[in-house]
Amino acid sequence: MVTLIACAAPGSDQTTTGALPRDLARQPQILPSGQVPDDLVSPSPAKKKKGKTKDPGDTSEDTSDQGGGSPTGPRTLAGVTDASGDAGLQAPDHADLAAVTVIDTGRRARIVVDAMAPFPNRLADGEVMGLGVDLFRGAGTESDYQVFADGSSEGWFAYLQTPQGFVSFPGSFLIGGRRMVFEVPWQALGRIRAGRVSAFLDWSKRAVPLNQVGQDRAPDSGTSPFQR
Question: CA–CA separation, 134 vs 169, rounded Å?
Fold first, then answer.
């Protein structure tokens, strides 16, 4: 699944958000300070948590679901860390992926994306970013579902794209420091039980004579499996 992202074409002085349906988007809430990371994330492998221990990015009290999840609390399904400085020489640190984590809270999927530096609440004039997390059911090269954040000087907007196209974003979208958290019902993701995940972050900024651009992927190639 390929989203029309909000990045300027190299050499162009124009930016575009393509055909993103702003009326279906969700604007972010502020991530509670206790859930904003101070250092780089090292996601743990999938395992059950004991008691009320929460995973990084936990913003929900959901503990059960007809379609999966653990009664002992949220658990990590997939965690991908990414090296610093691999988004391109022109890209700022907030356009450099650090980690992507998929967490099962029970009824919801919590997708946590960390960058190497805090995400600006609003990007500078002429600066745009597109951050997408792709979820795959099978072995195809196009994802079945995509959670996407579009950033510009107007702020941030989250979208959900499904096999039927864009739908009204059905969950929560939070930003705090260098972390973004998307939380959507598993039902909105087709109740995926097993699949693969990957993420991308594209950045550009108007400049003369050529626009500055950056691009990062996590993992650098391929996808990371998950199962709940």
Answer: 15
> Residues 142, 103, 130, 174: is their CA dihedral positive or negative?
positive
By mean pLDDT, which of 4-18, 19-33, 152-166, 182-196 is the weakest? 4-18
C-alpha to C-alpha distance for 75 and 81, rounded to whole angstroms:
17
Of 4-8, 137-141, 221-225, the range with the lowest mean pLDDT is: 4-8
Domains of the chain and any CATH numbers: 22-37+46-227 (2.60.40)
- Which comes out higher in pLDDT, residue 14 or 75? 75
Answer whether 155's CB lies under 8 Å from 11's CB.
no
* Secondary structure of the chain in HEC code, one letter for each residue: CCCCCCCCCCCCCCCCCCCCCHHHCECCEECCHHHCCCCCCCCCCCCCCCCCCCCCCCCCCCCCCCCCCCCCCCEEEEEEECCCCCCCCCCCHHHCEEEEEEEECCCEEEEEEEECCCCCCCCCCCEEEEEEEEEECCCCCCCCEEEEEEEECCEEEEEEEECCEEECCCCEEEEECCEEEEEEEHHHHCCCCEEEEEEEEEEEECCCCCCEEEEEEECCCCCEEEEC
Residue 49: pLDDT over 60:
no
Query: pLDDT tens digit string along 111-122?
Result: 999 999 999 999
User: Alpha-carbon distance 157 to 70, whole Å?
Assistant: 30
